[in-house]
């Protein structure tokens, strides 16, 4: 009795704050691992902070100010949450919120922003980069090209220019003062001097491999020949063996225009087109490449008000809705029917049937699509071989728009019904058997049981999943790309469009294939797809909420 009461009293004493027994229970000597972790805690935090600040600085130095600010805010929020007691409640939420911002919100905002620009394969660069590119265009003065060699001079180097090929200059050669050959941000002008006894003894010439190592520094040299003026007096790097004078194609004017040296034509930047447009006699021409500019709602106006664009776009949008809706309807009907049949306990070989019907879901989708593409081949496919043997017809599945769309629905329903089958099979197990027993006593048949008991009880929990299936098929790019590639095409359209294209495959063609990679228009269509899918999903969810009340 004494032993049984003393132990609890000891534990109560240990639980009292400040008691000697409590300190004996709580104070244990830290292990070596604990000491090491404590010693490395703040150094590790400092290394992570330095790495984060270095990344922010690199983004800012590259001219990506907005990216640098976003990274700074993200890193700052992370350190504030994980290093302070006040942020303890947010430590589990921060990774999810940060991931949502990085992988959902940011791509959406970035895509939307591109939709208001003329960003395309012809307008990839900024205006500053395009100007630099045009000013760098030049022709080489071939008869003034000189061979060169680089010689060691202690820790520095000296460059020797030889006679140009076919030049009448004679045997005159030039040598540079000692050079460090370090890469810099700006070109380095070097005054050459005639090679003679006063130049001193030159070291051995660098090998080709050593010249490659110093190529970046050599490319920044501008060699000024003594006693000469004009463009031919300044030599630029032309390769691993040559320096020579160049003639620029364009000259920059004080007002920002570019003057073409050959004919004196002026080109001014036009913010409406994103090109340097010709002035005067050169009007109607522009210099390529173009640069990216904001065009406002121009891409959206093309979708709504351009008749040549609006016709195929509206047709593709309608087919996208029909394709998604019919896929969900047929896949749900087939999957639910098969689930009810497999739920019949007196059915023999149920496990075998369930395994066979599940196979389309187990096989990778792209393999099934490619197999069906071979089966539907007009000349050699098994499906046409059977139809030809039975009815004497060979349908042109890939050439006729109606047959191509029918083929897409068949293949997509084949790929989608196992998902509904699995869902319905699980929902059927949750229906009480008493309902069917009472229905049997009332004399109801299988069809009555299905429409009065089974379908009403599983359609409500199934509805959110059907909405997600509709949204998935609305953006089901893989089946379109692998089976029909959007073909057959509409005839006489401004932008190539296929009669089996859905919006996402049509956007892909605009962005990357047929129409010159118009990223701005593709981004506008992508934004519209997001708005449509989000609106339809919210509408369906609201209707389901009202139906469940």
What's a quick, concise take on this entry?
The chain has 549 residues and is an alpha+beta fold. It has 4 domains: 1-29, no CATH class; 127-132 and 252-287, no CATH class; 138-248, Periplasmic binding protein-like II (Beta Barrel); 302-548, Orthogonal Bundle (MetI-like fold), CATH 1.10.3720.10.
Describe this structure in words.
This protein has 549 residues and is of the alpha+beta class. It folds into four domains: 1-29, no CATH class; 127-132 and 252-287, no CATH class; 138-248, Beta Barrel (Periplasmic binding protein-like II); 302-548, Orthogonal Bundle (MetI-like fold), CATH 1.10.3720.10. 55% of the residues lie in helices and 11% in strands. The protein is built from 19 helices and 15 strands. It has helices at residues 2-15, 20-26, 32-61, 65-82, 94-114, 127-136, 208-213, 215-219, 298-305, 307-342, 350-362, 365-375, 382-391, 401-428, 433-441, 446-474, 477-483, 503-512, 519-548; strands at 138-140, 146-153, 156-164, 174-175, 188-191, 193-194, 221-224, 234-237, 242-244, 246-248, 250-252, 258-260, 266-270, 275-278, 286-287. The chain starts with a helix and ends with a helix. The relative contact order is 0.07. Mean pLDDT is 85; it is low at 1-25 and 166-170. The chain crosses the membrane at residues 39-60, 66-83, 90-110, 316-344, 356-376, 407-428, 462-483, 519-541. Its main location: membrane. Part of the ABC transporter complex MalEFGK involved in maltose/maltodextrin import. Probably responsible for the translocation of the substrate across the membrane. The complex is composed of two ATP-binding proteins (MalK), two transmembrane proteins (MalG and MalF) and a solute-binding protein (MalE).
């Amino acid at each position: 009795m004494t032993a049984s009461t003393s132990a609890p009293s000891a534990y109560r004493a240990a639980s009292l704050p400040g008691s000697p027994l409590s300190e004996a229970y709580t104070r244990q000597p830290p292990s070596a691992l604990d000491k090491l972790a404590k010693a490395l805690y703040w150094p590790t935090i400092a290394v992570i902070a330095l790495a984060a600040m270095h990344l922010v600085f690199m983004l800012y130095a590259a001219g990506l100010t907005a990216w640098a600010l976003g990274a700074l805010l993200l890193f700052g929020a992370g350190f504030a949450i994980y290093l302070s007691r006040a942020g303890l409640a947010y430590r589990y939420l921060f990774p999810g919120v940060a991931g949502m911002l990085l992988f959902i919100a940011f791509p959406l905002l970035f895509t939307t922003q591109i939709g208001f620009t003329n960003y395309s394969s012809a307008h990839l660069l900024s205006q500053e980069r395009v100007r630099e590119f045009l000013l760098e265009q030049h022709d080489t003065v071939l008869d003034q090209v000189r061979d060169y060699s680089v010689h060691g001079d202690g820790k520095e180097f000296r460059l020797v220019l030889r006679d140009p090929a076919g030049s009448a200059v004679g045997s005159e050669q030039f040598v540079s003062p000692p050079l460090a050959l370090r890469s810099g941000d700006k070109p380095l002008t070097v005054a050459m001097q005639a090679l003679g006894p006063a130049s001193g003894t030159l070291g051995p010439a660098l090998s080709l491999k050593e010249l490659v190592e110093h190529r970046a520094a050599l490319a920044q040299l501008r060699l000024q020949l003594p006693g000469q003026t004009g463009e031919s007096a300044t030599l630029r790097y032309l390769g691993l063996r040559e320096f020579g004078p160049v003639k620029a194609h364009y000259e920059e004017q004080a007002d920002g225009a570019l003057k073409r040296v050959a004919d004196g034509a002026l080109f001014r930047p036009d913010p409406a087109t994103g090109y340097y447009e010709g002035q005067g006699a050169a009007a109607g021409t522009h210099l390529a490449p173009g640069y990216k500019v904001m065009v406002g709602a121009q891409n959206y106006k093309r979708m709504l008000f351009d008749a040549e664009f609006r016709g195929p776009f509206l047709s593709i949008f309608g087919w996208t809705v029909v394709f998604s809706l019919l896929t969900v309807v047929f896949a749900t009907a087939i999957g639910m029917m098969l689930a009810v049949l497999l739920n019949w306990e007196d059915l023999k070989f149920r496990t075998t049937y369930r395994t066979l019907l599940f196979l389309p879901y187990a096989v990778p989708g792209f393999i099934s699509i490619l197999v069906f593409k071979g089966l539907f081949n007009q000349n050699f496919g098994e499906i046409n071989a059977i139809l030809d043997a039975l009815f004497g017809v060979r349908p042109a599945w890939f050439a006729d728009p109606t047959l191509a769309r029918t083929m897409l629905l068949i293949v997509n329903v084949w790929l989608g019904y196992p998902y509904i089958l699995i869902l319905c099979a699980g929902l059927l197990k949750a229906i009480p058997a008493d309902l069917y027993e009472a229905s049997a006593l009332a004399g109801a048949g299988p069809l009555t049981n299905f429409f009065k008991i089974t379908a009403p009880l599983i359609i409500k929990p199934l509805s959110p999943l059907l909405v997600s299936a509709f949204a998935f098929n609305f953006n089901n790019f893989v089946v379109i790309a692998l089976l029909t590639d959007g073909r057959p095409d509409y005839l006489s359209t401004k932008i190539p469009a296929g009669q089996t294209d859905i919006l996402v495959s049509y956007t892909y063609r605009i962005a990357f294939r047929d129409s010159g990679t118009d990223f701005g228009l593709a981004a506008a269509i992508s934004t519209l797809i997001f708005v449509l899918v989000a609106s339809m999903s919210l509408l369906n969810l609201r209707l389901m909420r009202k139906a469940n009340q």
